[in-house]
Specification:
CATH topology of the largest domain: MetI-like fold
Number of domains: 2
CATH class of the largest domain: Mainly Alpha
Largest sheet: 3 strands, antiparallel
Strand content: 5-15%
CATH superfamily of the largest domain: MetI-like
Structural class: alpha+beta
CATH architecture of the largest domain: Orthogonal Bundle
Strand order of the largest sheet: 1-2-3
Order of helices and strands: HHHEEEEEHHHHHHHHHHH
Radius of gyration: 26 Å
Length: 367
């Protein structure tokens, strides 16, 4: 019995094309690892974001040793470090081979709430006190950079998702209403969009941040930044959705829905906006990096998330001095993670644009 060829839906074909894009899949897995690391940061990080040891200020990364002094293979451990200064008053960390701290799994350390629910004090790996494990080195206060990058990812990565969800919901609704109704409603909404677009984004960002009171807690500042970034990003999408709505409202299925007495809002939500989904998905993926960079810029300038809470932006504030970068180059690592995240989102956005393009198949055959 001969099997008939299986007909794939448009979504299944787009997913198949996306999986065939090797670079996009690599970026997808990188983002999956970053978001999983941020979600389970309390357990995966050996220390909390505020755990500091001033005697280890700007301590370089501590490598895991696999061989003892006799050259025999042994269980991984780290040597102790002793801080001293040279004749130029430069910090030097000497390796103390007398002190050896075995690398352990499920080490007891700082208390936290796993996923915000269960209290625990066990971390995936680490070394027992007074030893310190610095995989990525330490910052100026002796805080583990690896742990702070994981915790900082919670803010830097989540702001992009939440901010883009709010701004695109506003943009889709405003653009859909303007394109569907037209007339004075269209004119009024588009003039508002043009006013928002006309102001340079970064200066508008600074102006809106200046309105936020200085006595806000870090949690309040976090939500304030989300609202600010959402306010900036919706206007451009609204104009494009409005243009798509102008053409979609003349389609036969929309006219049929009007004839049947379907309400205008329901027509917009169920018949017009879903047909803009392919563009919206691509635009969302390409817009998320802008929100991450916006939060990073505010935090870098000291207007965003404040110490001791970690975000990739405020961690980069320590790298504002050439002398610090030369002395402790590992403090640039948060910038690398920002760069990596932005590149991954852009690569996935470009891949989705190709996959959801109705001319993709024809171009592929022509090639």
């Amino acid at each position: 019995m001969i099997k008939e060829p299986k007909h794939l839906s448009q979504f299944q074909m787009a997913l198949k094309r996306f999986k065939e894009n090797r670079m996009a899949m690599i970026c997808f897995y990188i983002l999956f690892i970053l978001y999983a690391g941020a979600l389970f940061a309390d357990f995966l990080a050996p220390y909390s974001y505020s755990n500091e040891e001033r005697n280890y200020s700007y301590c370089p990364p501590t490598p895991l040793e696999l061989f003892n002094e006799q050259g025999h293979l042994t269980w991984p451990f780290v040597y102790g470090r002793q801080l001293t200064f040279d004749e130029y008053h430069k910090r030097i960390y000497l390796v103390d081979k007398i002190q050896q701290f075995p690398f352990k799994f499920f080490v007891k350390g700082d208390e936290y709430k796993f996923l915000g629910i269960l209290k625990s004090s066990y971390h995936l790996f680490g070394v027992e006190s007074p030893g310190r494990l610095y995989l990525f080195g330490a910052d100026s206060r002796g805080r583990d950079l690896y742990s702070r990058i994981l915790h900082g990812g919670r803010i830097s990565l989540s702001i992009g998702l939440i901010g883009v969800a709010i701004s695109f919901s506003i943009g889709l609704l405003v653009g859909g209403i303007a394109g569907y109704f037209g007339g004075w409603i269209d004119d009024a909404l588009m003039r508002i969009c043009e006013i928002v677009i006309m102001i340079p984004g970064f200066y508008l960002l600074l102006a809106l941040r200046a309105v936020v009171p200085d006595n806000f807690s870090s949690l309040q500042v976090y939500f304030a930044i989300i609202i600010i970034l959402s306010f900036i990003g919706w206007a451009g999408l609204a104009r494009i959705i409005r243009g798509m709505g102008l053409s979609l409202k003349t389609r036969d299925y929309v006219l049929a829905a009007k004839t049947l007495g379907v309400s205008n809002i329901k027509i917009i939500v169920t018949h017009i906006l879903p047909h803009t989904l392919s563009y919206s998905i691509v635009a969302v993926m390409l817009s998320i990096p802008g929100y991450i960079l916006g939060e990073s810029a505010l935090s870098l300038l000291g207007l965003g998330i404040q110490d001791p809470y970690a975000s990739w932006g405020n961690m980069l504030s320590e790298a504002m001095s050439i002398a610090r970068i030369k002395f402790a180059p590992w403090i640039l690592l948060p910038g690398f993670f920002i760069f990596l995240t932005v590149v991954c989102f852009n690569m996935i956005g470009d891949a989705l644009r190709d996959c959801l393009d109705p001319l993709y198949k024809g171009e592929e055959r022509a090639g």
